Task: inverse folding
């Protein structure tokens, strides 16, 4: 096996472990997720796990980055991102979030929200990683909201950054309710309300 092949194999096993960690932690929570569970989900050994990660915490932090990168790619490829009207992009973001409430709960709930609720005090490094990636995602939306605000509500006192973070608060709360009620309908209803909220914040074209 040449060096390029070894590197590719190592990258593939790392990705399998990160995908497995995302699924297991979203399903069980951080504390209940064992290294053995992640290895079993990935179809790899504990030796492979510890070759890539020094600890379960290190794996969780890497999984947060992996989850965020996959989310960025998903939202970048979403059709709404190409809409010329910034208000349409903001509303399209909410519509897209509703459209991807598909499959079992672990498939559409947020790894970052799941981990930070549980580990914010006991694992500061996990809290910091979750804060970083939630905030970065909100920042991407804030750019569209800022453009829409300049066009539709230039004199409003609210900030694009606060509105974008509010959207994430709604989403994370919606995921908690979906878990409590064991289904996506309540989350979809919350997103409908979020859409109406943005329609109120950005009421009319002033161009």
Result:
């Amino acid at each position: 096996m040449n060096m390029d092949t070894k590197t590719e194999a190592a990258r593939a096993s790392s990705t399998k472990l990160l995908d497995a960690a995302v699924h297991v932690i979203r399903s069980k929570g951080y504390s209940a997720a064992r290294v053995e569970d992640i290895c079993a989900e990935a179809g790899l050994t504990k030796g492979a796990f510890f070759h890539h990660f020094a600890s379960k915490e290190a794996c969780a932090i890497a999984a947060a980055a992996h989850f965020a990168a996959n989310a960025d790619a998903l939202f970048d490829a979403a059709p709404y991102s190409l809409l010329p009207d910034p208000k349409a992009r903001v509303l399209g973001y909410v519509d897209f979030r509703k459209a991807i409430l598909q499959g079992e709960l672990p498939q559409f709930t947020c790894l970052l929200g799941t981990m930070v609720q549980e580990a914010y005090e006991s694992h500061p490094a996990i809290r910091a990683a979750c804060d970083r990636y939630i905030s970065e995602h909100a920042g991407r939306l804030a750019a569209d909201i800022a453009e829409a605000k300049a066009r539709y509500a230039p004199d409003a006192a609210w900030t694009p950054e606060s509105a974008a973070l509010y959207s994430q608060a709604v989403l994370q709360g919606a995921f908690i309710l979906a878990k409590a009620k064991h289904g996506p309908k309540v989350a979809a209803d919350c997103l409908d309300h979020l859409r109406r909220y943005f329609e109120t914040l950005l009421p009319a074209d002033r161009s």
Summary: The radius of gyration is 19 Å. DSSP finds ten helices and no strands in the chain. The chain has a mean pLDDT of 95.
